[in-house]
Amino acid sequence: MFDLLGPRGAILRSQKGWRITRPDGEEEVPFEPTPWPELFKRQAQKFLKAVVEGGEPEATGEDGLRALEVGLAAIESARTGRRIKLPLRPGGIDKQDARSKAPARNEVLPGEG
């Protein structure tokens, strides 16, 4: 089990589901395990629809960066035994800096060619 703690609340995983606490109260959100083949099916379908029809996918690149940040913080917390504050960098990720370092779509990366 794990806990996510923030300045305005927390998300705690229990045997029954998620316990979400906020300044205005607490709620229990039950969940049932999803069979492995179905786990990402809906998300993949919505992503493909956004690619084919245009538009914003349900989970954006920004969402992915935030998820990565939480994962990296969890690893660092497990390694050091300390709480890790987010964002990892003040101001989060510099989008312009990230774009300038990203390879062009047709660029061959080292080891690919």
Topology:
Layout: E1 3-6, E2 9-13, E3 17-22, E4 25-30, H1 41-53, H2 61-80, H3 95-101
Antiparallel strand pairs: 1-2, 2-3, 3-4
What does this structure look like?
This protein is an alpha+beta fold and 113 residues long. It folds into 2 domains: 1-32, no CATH class; 34-97, no CATH class. 35% of the residues lie in helices and 19% in strands. It is built from 3 helices and 4 strands, in the order ββββααα. The protein has a 4-stranded antiparallel β-sheet with strand order 1-2-3-4, with no helix packed on it. β3 (17-22) and β4 form a beta hairpin. The protein is globular, with a radius of gyration of 18 Å.
Largest sheet: 4 strands, antiparallel
Strand content: 15-25%
- Count the helices. How many? 3
How far the N terminus sits from the C terminus, by CA atoms, comes to 43 Å
Average residue-wise pLDDT: 79
List keywords for this structure.
113 residues, globular, 4-stranded antiparallel sheet, 19% strand
Characterize this entry briefly.
The protein has three helices and four strands, in the order E-E-E-E-H-H-H. With 113 residues, it is an alpha+beta fold.
